[in-house]
Specification:
- It is an enzyme of class 2 (transferase).
- It is a single chain.
- This protein is α/β, with parallel strands linked by helices.
- The chain has one domain: Rossmann fold (3-Layer(aba) Sandwich).
- The chain has seven helices and eight strands, in the order αββαβαβαβαβαβαβ.
- The protein has an eight-stranded mixed beta sheet, with helices on both faces.
- Helix 2 links the parallel strand 2 (41-45) and strand 3 (64-69).
- Bound molecules: S-adenosylmethionine.
Length: 216
Amino acid sequence: MRLKNKPWALPLIQENPQYVVTEPQKFRGQWQERFAARQPLMIEVGMGKGRFILEMARQNPDKNFIGLEVQTTATGIALKKQLAANLPNLQFICGDGNEITEMFAPGEVAGIYLNFSDPWPKKRHAKRRLTYRTFLAQYQQIIASDGLLEFKTDNQGLFEYSLASLNNYGMVFDQVWLDLHHSKEAADNVMTEYEEKFSQKGQPIYKLAARFESKN
Ligand SMILES: C[S@@+](CC[C@H](N)C(=O)[O-])C[C@H]1O[C@@H](n2cnc3c(N)ncnc32)[C@H](O)[C@@H]1O
């Protein structure tokens, strides 16, 4: 979903290169150098305003996190939160997830989060869904061999599509939740902005956790 353009967002991003990278290909294979400690790198593709990735970074100081977002305004809003929190294990990329293999080297990423990705309900737009096979192929290139892909959504159609897409790609499911907030997993769940909005309306939240089958 497109946010209304905030004219302050781009200048704020440009003033804070310590937190936001706008030319991510320059750091391919070297992301660990941007963090205080070398530790597993987790990324969220389409972080929106950053609530999830900020909270994950706060709760998991033994991991590094990168929030990737294509919209300047959303990245700017996330950056404002990070400027207040100053988490040493959090960085942002303002860029397109469709170029992820140019941003990260093979195996550089330990885990990938997709949260409430745009559903693109029209069949002719299926290629834009972040769980379409061309995106899966890119995730497979950058994720470590035991790395986990986690996906949450309120959208039943997108969830059904994604289950089939990941299965057809040959991925192995660790677990699937059809009502995350009423499951045992709920206690450890970190909510996103969209998740709070949709769950308040009483909609069930779907989640899957899956891995690429080992190449050995
Ligand atoms: C529906 S919002 C969800 C935001 C957040 N993950 C949440 O759950 O609150 C989807 C976000 O993904 C971003 N997005 C969509 N396609 C993207 C892409 N190819 N690369 C990076 N971000 C993308 C959109 O700009 C939008 O901010």
